[in-house]
Amino acid sequence: MAHYYDKDTILYLDGALVKASEAKIDLYSQTMHYGYGVFEGIRSYRTQNGETRIFKPVEHYVRLERSAKLLNLPYTYSVEELIEATYQVLDKNNLQDAYIRPLVYAPANMSFVPNTESHITIQVWKMEPFLGEKLLRVMSSSYQRPNPKGFHIEAKACGHYVNSILASQEAKANGYDEALLTDMNGNIAEGPGANVFYEKNGQLFTPSLGNILPGITRATVFELAAGLGIQVTEKRITTEELKTADAVFFCGTAAEVIGWDSLDGSGFAKNWNDSLGRKIQKAYMALVTETSIKETINLV
Predict the structure, then answer these.
(1) Considering the domain boundaries, does residue 228 fall inside one?
(2) Residues 6+ apart with CB under 8 A from 142
């Protein structure tokens, strides 16, 4: 099992820095029983000049607030105070290359009546490459993403990730590295915790919004592609179409940018090292570590 904390680990809880081993959550929390909470996944990096830099903290904390409001969770925290708290937690734990997990959770509430308060914690830990470092063997999942009319699918809500866990565990049980889920109409949606892009004829394509989480790394790929002169098109994508791609990759805060080896055992036309995804991967690492793109060639 992964090791997230020890007796000296510090986390942020409701405005205070406390030891992780001493922090407590109410076992009657609505979040514990119903998955009624929201969270973010954020990364920090050691930059080329040795500083600690959180990647796109404003965008992440703005989305955390939006997620809370979509779920009617009371939210009283400012972006500025949470960014400051996050840097404090990183410093207290002597971490630079780290994964950051803010969580807004509900108090004791065994009913469905609205809450009058919420709690917040920010936890950090060192994370190895989330999906490994090899190209991924991906499986078409038997699970679909939830109907967006049943959830606020654009919210990063705790309960939504039961779906992700089921899909990812199914893929691994069948000998694959990760899953790919479709939406309720059978079109490609996303991975359990990452958005998907594919290359065809010198362009990139990705599923339209509506049935997917609008990822912050996904938005970053659009920015990087524009800078590299690569056209990106959002559209509905079928599994059959995806299997004809020249190359495919996942992107997400935890996953970063990682290429695929195959989908359901079917490989792709291009060598990953010659793909647009590889260019995006190198550009992404240069961006987050504040390194020139030339110096990043050997980083990935």
Answers:
(1) yes
(2) 170
